[in-house]
Amino acid sequence: MNYKIETTNESITRELAKKIGTKLQSGDVLLLEGDLGAGKTTFTKGLAEGLEIPQMVKSPTFTIVREYTKGRLPLYHMDVYRLEDAEDDLGLDEYFQGNGVSVVEWAHFIERDLPDKYIRITLKHVAENERTLEIEPVGARYEALCSEVFGE
Ligand SMILES: Nc1ncnc2c1ncn2[C@@H]1O[C@H](COP(=O)(O)OP(=O)(O)O)[C@@H](O)[C@H]1O
Ligand SMILES: [Mg+2]
Questions:
Q1: What is the DSSP string of 118-151?
Q2: How far, in Å, is the centroid of ligand 2 from the Cα of 8?
């Protein structure tokens, strides 16, 4: 089952992500889609709060991956925008198979390298402070997690 949620400001998006973050486990994977400014990094900041990461999360655009290791679990925050059409083995499996939580901005650019179970979150810019979040869990664990967070 998918979920569609509207948020009317940045802190609501962060709170929502934080709620998911508190429930994440070792090895979890979240794929974030949406145009520049849609709120992917903002969402990741909320996830980091839920993972009790004390550092400030910054966009990894110029590094591809940033690792945060001071929380309840490690967070591997990837922005793969610049890897579009990359032919090489990117070595990202090390993260997906790792102990931490992987979050991938622009995940469709590395479609072939993605694990087959994940939560995909697509953010859409509606108005200056309004966004819609479409949340699509793939795999039984993620179905259960989303139903726990978003279900009645
Ligand atoms: N409801 C909202 N949810 C998330 N971000 C919002 C919202 N309203 C406004 N914003 C702003 O939109 C921008 C989103 O930027 P960012 O998270 O870096 O996007 P992306 O990583 O998708 O490029 C931030 O400046 C944020 O303050
Ligand atoms: Mg970003």
A1: EEEEEEEEEETTEEEEEEEEESHHHHHHHHHHH-
A2: 19
- Confirm if 44 and 32 have CB atoms less than 8 A apart: yes
pLDDT of the residue at 152: 63
The domains located in the chain, with CATH, are 3-150 (3.40.50.300)
- The CA-CA-CA angle for residues 97, 102, 106, to 5°, reads 120
Q: Rounded distance, CA 93 to CA 75, Å?
A: 14
What are the b/e assignments for 26-50, b being 16+ CB within 10 Å? Answer: ebbbbbbbbeeebbbbbbbbbbbbb
CB of 11 closer than 6 A to ligand 1?
no
Distance from the CA of 12 to the center of ligand 1, in angstroms? 11
Token pair of 52 as six digits: 């009790």
pLDDT along the chain (152 residues), means of 10: 97 98 98 98 98 94 89 96 75 94 96 95 98 98 96 73
pLDDT tens for residues 17-51? 999 999 999 999 999 999 999 999 999 999 999 99
